[in-house]
Amino acid sequence: MFRIDHDAFERDGFVRLPGFASADTCRRMLERVVEISRERAEGIGGDQLVLPEANLVGRDGLPEELVSKVFKLHRDSVFEEFCRDPSVTDLVAELVGPKLDCFLSQFIFKNPGAWGQPWHQDSFYFPFDPPRPILGVWLAVTAATLENGCLHVIPGSHQQPVHEHVPDRRPGANYGYVEIVDHDMSASVPVLMDPGDLLLFDSHLMHRSTDNESGGIRAAMVYHYAQTGTTQRVDGIVNDFVTVR
To answer: pLDDT per residue over 158-188, tens digit each?
Structure first.
């Protein structure tokens, strides 16, 4: 049974739970999202939103080798099973509340050569009432290393308000990427993860990822949860509120 170190979460804004998910769970997720990516490339419709990796556009490769992220997965059976699993939702409920909505899901491919995502706080993307609590649940489907572009976080930054975010200043950056430029990031630490490890993090936590300089993918599945009854002030094309507990 997995337990949350509440003192660590309150202090740092995140906790890592090693070995949370099985290798079979990670395999099924990866196989299913590859299938979805190939279906969309063939013009087979679906509810999921598949976004390309901007700086890989024009390269040869299989569809999944050119994808950045796939959104709106938590109604698909493989991903719904995980986001509703009591072993997940019971942990989330400890930090968010007893009644939960999963409102966002995304699979991140992070293929070789893909750029990282700049420093940001997830709550910048979530104009919600109430604005908190919101929890991210990040499952390492493959290993996350320094070479392949693991997450970096600033412990304790969840205690700050949402900072100003400006559009990602790199030419050709991925759609929707923004960055924080008004804060000292020198206290950042990398979050190295093995396949199956789970990261729980507050939506105000400042975090980024670095470029994938390895020869393999750094795959992850990410869900975001809020209290049931949370509403969004502005419609979001990737948000889909589903009560899961």
So the answer is: 999 999 999 999 998 898 999 999 999 999 9
- Please give the domain boundaries of the chain with CATH numbers for all domains: 8-157+164-243 (2.60.120.620)
Strands (E), 56-209: 67-71, 100-108, 128-129, 134-140, 151-153, 165-167, 178-180, 189-191, 198-202, 207-209
How far, in Å, CA of 129 to CA of 150, rounded? 31
- Matching residue, tokens 């600033």: 154
Q: Which of 23, 15, 76 is nearest to 219 (CA)?
A: 23
In whole angstroms, give the CA distance from residue 4 to residue 16: 9
Q: Amino acid identity, residue 223?
A: Y
**CA neighbor of 135 nearest in space, from 191, 185, 196, 91:** 91
pTM of the complete model beyond 0.70: yes
Structure tokens at 121: 């706080």
